[in-house]
Write a structure and sequence with these properties.
The protein is mainly alpha-helical. Helix content is 71%, strand content 5%. The strands form 2 sheets. The chain has a two-stranded antiparallel ribbon. The model is unreliable at 1-14 and 263-280 (pLDDT under 50).
Length: 280
């Protein structure tokens, strides 16, 4: 049944246009530029200017409107990171990096619901805009950047030797430790695939659902308002996917640097014990 549905979608039955891969719009110097690349670049530019304009209006005093929403999102991201790292200091330290992932996925998914994205605007029967997260190449790039960023931040936090200890323990030449370390290294590649596929499939399936339901509604002569629940559901999924991608990336970093400064943690615990009142 699913194969029939996808074949019908590919053939363009019922006027539905759904592609499971990004489509070439033009080439520059032999480099293929796809509709998802164009969309991703525009979303990044739009996000930069919006955040820059809102950041200039940010202040200590509470405000209303868009700036209040941005401050809520930032505080929400810090709270998510605090749960992953276990303390607010590290959450604030890494918040700018993980906020970029969260907000870009959120912007990309939500802006992908506007009518001009997808089949709205064509060039030679090819849609100009395709959601960046609905392109497997795009989500793979994001996953690779996230995992590489985790490695870089882990090395900066504890040095190269400490970072390698995360994989191979303190006795790497022990055959068992070495084998486990190799498995841990390969585990980073599975994390890339997991992050990329989860984000891609949820977005792509959402695109298919909206296209199919919209076509059925319009072909039956009924009101397009009936598709609103699907769109609202996709808005919810957009937020969930941004959250999942961010919290998983942050958790990977937290696991990598969990033993970065154990002596500092013991020192802090000793201070707290010394500060306890003497009840004897």
């Amino acid at each position: 049944m699913l194969s029939t549905l996808f074949s019908r979608l590919a053939e363009g039955d019922s006027g539905i246009h759904v592609s499971l891969k990004a489509e070439e719009v033009f080439t520059i110097g032999g480099v293929t530029v796809t509709n998802s690349m164009i969309y991703g670049l525009l979303v990044a530019i739009f996000m930069f200017f919006v955040l820059y304009a809102l950041a200039k209006k940010s202040s200590v005093k509470p405000k209303k409107g868009a700036i209040a929403i941005l401050e809520f999102l930032v505080e929400f991201i810090i709270g998510v990171l605090e749960g992953a790292f276990g303390n607010r200091k590290q959450a604030i330290k890494y918040a700018p990096i993980f906020s970029v992932f969260f907000l870009f996925i959120l912007f990309s998914n939500i802006l992908g619901l506007i009518p001009i994205v997808g089949p709205g605007i064509h060039v030679n029967h090819i849609p100009i805009f395709r959601p960046f997260t609905a392109d497997l190449n795009g989500t793979l790039v994001m996953a690779v950047i996230a995992i590489v960023a985790v490695q870089v931040m882990s090395i900066r936090a504890q040095g190269l030797k400490g970072h390698l200890t995360h994989y191979f323990s303190d006795k790497p030449w022990n055959p068992i430790n070495f084998f486990i370390g190799i498995l841990e290294v390969f585990g980073e590649f599975t994390r890339i695939l997991s992050l990329a596929l989860r984000l891609f499939l949820n977005t792509a399936v959402g695109e298919i659902l909206i296209a199919v339901f919209t076509s059925l509604i319009l072909s039956g002569g009924r009101t397009p308002v009936a598709v609103i629940p699907i769109i609202l559901f996709e808005v919810l999924v957009a937020g969930i996917q941004a959250y999942v991608f961010t919290v998983l990336s942050a958790t990977y970093l937290a696991l990598a640097i969990s033993h970065a400064h154990p002596e500092e943690e013991h020192h802090d615990e000793a201070i707290k014990v010394e500060e306890l009142p003497d009840v004897a």
